[in-house]
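Hi everyone,

Forwarding the result from last night's run.
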Amino acid sequence: MHEPKPIEHSIFMGQVADNGYQIQTPAGTTSYLLEKPGSTKYKTYEPLVENPALFAEFAELEPTKEAITDFANKYGLLIGKGYPVVKGSKSNFSTAVTPGDPVLIWFNEIAHMKALMTIWRHYLEQNKEALAQWFYWENGQIKCVPLTKTYPGDNSPYAWHDFSQSVNNLLAIPKVAAQIIPGDILLPVKIFVMTVVNDKLVQYPALAQITINVNGLILAPKFQPKNLLSVLWFQFSRYVIGELKVTPCIVCGGWVEFTDGKKMKAHPACSNRWRVKKSRIRPDVLRLHAEGKTVSEITLALNADRRMVLQILEVANGRFN
């Protein structure tokens, strides 16, 4: 009997204001990313279904106010708690709440997810040299280098908690300690990532319930993130435990979910465009190849993707280098 994936019944409806978002810095306060005035309509979407690799796109954002504004205009606010805006005079005023996020939260979460993506990639590659920039042993204890930076235009540094003590407490558990190879950092890295992700899931939780799958009436887990930031860390947690696999789209370079055995690691729309273009240039590729042109010469002559030219030739005549 087919078991449903945990994500199948998870729900979150993202909202994007039709007027978009802008950054403002009210006097005496921190900068906020706020919904622009006059928004009356909201585009809705399901990031868990439509954008399963959104966390990877988020992790690649540049630490600039322009980048986070562009992302918000596509996907909405991270938390959207709102910022109180006072209107009117001292004797006659009203307070309204404009949906918004502190800009510093964006910078924090981008940096943390960017760092964890890098650390986890190095872990999967078993790249101990790269990981040594973040983790090292000292007096029998693992040390985790805390992340601390200050972004231009923001006087507030951000940092994540130094998780060294939490990691060492777990490493001290006898059954865990028995598996540690002296001087090795791979197991501590895995525990570090687990600890940080769990901390994020506590801060930005996804409500866990069970539901029934109407196809076969199987009970299945259901997760309901409370905001977009919950979605991003929930997606990242699935990526770390191997339930979610992502890779750059071979057409546009953006991130896309893929499954084992899938031939085309591309967005559906990109895949369609790829097939249409490949079909269109196929006669010219075969003609030029028959004339003795090399793959590089064909690629240049047709202004085509080298991988596309190779695919056409592989199908027609076998593999070409």
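The longest strand covers residues 206-213.

Cheers,
N.
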